[in-house]
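Hello,

Our lab assistant flagged a job as stuck in the queue for most of the afternoon. It eventually completed. Since we weren't sure the result was trustworthy after the delay, we are filing this so someone can double-check. Below is the sequence as submitted and the structure that was eventually returned. Let us know if re-running is recommended.
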Amino acid sequence: MIPIRDHNPSGKTPWVTYFLIAANCIVFLYMVLLPEDSLEQFIYSYAVIPRQLLQGQKVLSLLSAMFLHGSFGHIIGNMLFLNIFGDNLEDVLGHFKFILFYLLCGLGAWALQLLITPASEIPMLGASGAIAGVMGGYLVLFPNNKIDILFTLGWYISRVSLPAYTMLFYWFFAQLLYGVGGLGFADVGGVAYFAHIGGFAAGWVLISLLGRKKGRNQRGDLFFPGL
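-- returned structure --
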């Protein structure tokens, strides 16, 4: 299930969303051009390493790690999701509140992952947690907006339009399933699913503090009136 666009045009140019996409791409290009030994040193310098961070080391990695990606697939997927869901939240929140929201979601993502894997020495990197927060906020404000989805099954590809909550709930519960299923294998590397869960939950909560009322007044389509 791959989202390709939403049917919810933004009311103004999402400059912060574009800046975040550009910044992530520039950093990734820089990483691609580094020699292998320098790349490894760069990652260990700027990625989140739970054990070191909880010992008070490299605190700023909580921010720098949000702009690092480990592969082309990693950054393409993240930037696709940010491009689809980011502009509408930036429209509701405004530029300053949106970047604050984005960074706080990223911190919330790291917080849950650190709680789950405090002794890990594996570098954690990527914008996925912050973008998961954007998705959580989108779910609160725009649950019924249509999202164009690509379904793939082998050679079969189909494009359908679904309400946003369908795709977002599916994504969240997939992260939860994979995260819980991998609890016994926390130090084997791979995807930090609990960072996704933490970011999504942070976005869900923060949108109530930063933009829920404005989003309701502008769009009138809240799916969870009692949230």
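-- support follow-up --
The delay was a queue issue, not a problem with the job. The result is valid. The longest strand covers residues 146-153. The chain has one domain: 2-185+193-219.
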